[in-house]
Amino acid sequence: MIQFHRRSLLAAGVLAAPAIRLRPAHAAEFSYKYANNLPLTHPMNQRAKEAAEAIAKETGGRVEIQIFPNNQLGSDTDMLSQVRNGAIEFFTLSGLILSTLVPAASINGVGFAFPNYAAVWKAMDGALGAHVRAQIGKAGLIVMNKIWDNGFRQITSSSKAITTPEDLRNFKIRVPVSPLWTSLFQAFGSAPTSINFAEVYSALQTKVVDGQENPLAIISTAKLYEVQKHCALTNHMWDGFWMLGNRRAWAALPADAQAVVAKHWNEAALAERGDVAALNASLQAELAKQGLTFNTVDPTPFREALRKAGFYTQWKQRYGDEAWGILEQDLGKLT
Ligand code: X2X
């Protein structure tokens, strides 16, 4: 008797796929996947859904984009490999994590660099963003012009409130997989552990780590408040998501379809920025009701601690004078 392996039967389309997918009567000419690490309820997925609908409509159904939120297709590290090899066509990724492939892409995460959103968008829609996008292009990936907002990051903890840099000493904190993140918390004398977002909730729940840092929109939509007690409003870095594309999949699209896709991804990013800013401004009260205790911090001693640890001079060297010069042109002297 011939034995078939389940996987080859699946690949051959003999076995039914686990989920039924409703397809339009005419299958799209280009059926692409967009994957990300955030819950479906986060504005990034809400706006991406609108964009995908607009793209299907405006291309007359030729381009269909299916959204896979919430790490359904793997961790950020996995998805970065997949967008490079074409297993997925679009992927939003934090520049800091992308820096494992494109070192320049973490530059917006330098600690306490941005004072407010006006400074963020001036830099990221201006010379700094253009510099990073050029490096992403050199690494063989497509990137859209407008970066999506993740937000200013805040530190949560299950063990104690963080009010001074000293409170971060020996603090067991989860950081995303990125040399800049590890370096930042090492400069505070913390014990950072690199963990992909897919594992963060359970790492906090099982106390593998005592804390993590993320913008309020994520603390809320990923329900991290269920496994954390304190939240320090540190605003220690601004983080955003680049919309990346696989180069071959992009090149396969006719120029008019490329223009439609780029237009809607970029418009969605701008709309999402508005949503996230509004959420981050209003969520504190809601999260407090869920049991999170908030405190503000004076950023000055935190910045001073980083300076004393040599954090800024070290990263200036790593990015090089050109990139650092662009950063300081917008933000003033950091070292
Ligand atoms: O992993 C995180 O903490 C997140 C969701 O903020 C990023 O994608 C960097």
UniProtKB/TrEMBL annotation:
Signal peptide coordinates: 1-27
Name under which the protein is recorded: TRAP transporter substrate-binding protein
Gene3D superfamilies assigned: Bacterial extracellular solute-binding protein, family 7 (3.40.190.170)
Coiled coil (UniProt feature): none
Domain of life of the organism encoding this protein: Bacteria
Listed InterPro entries: DctP_fam (IPR018389), TRAP_DctP (IPR004682), TRAP_DctP_sf (IPR038404)
Compartment(s) of residence: Cell envelope
Native organism: Belnapia mucosa
Keywords tagged on the record: Signal, Transport
Family: Belongs to the bacterial solute-binding protein 7 family.
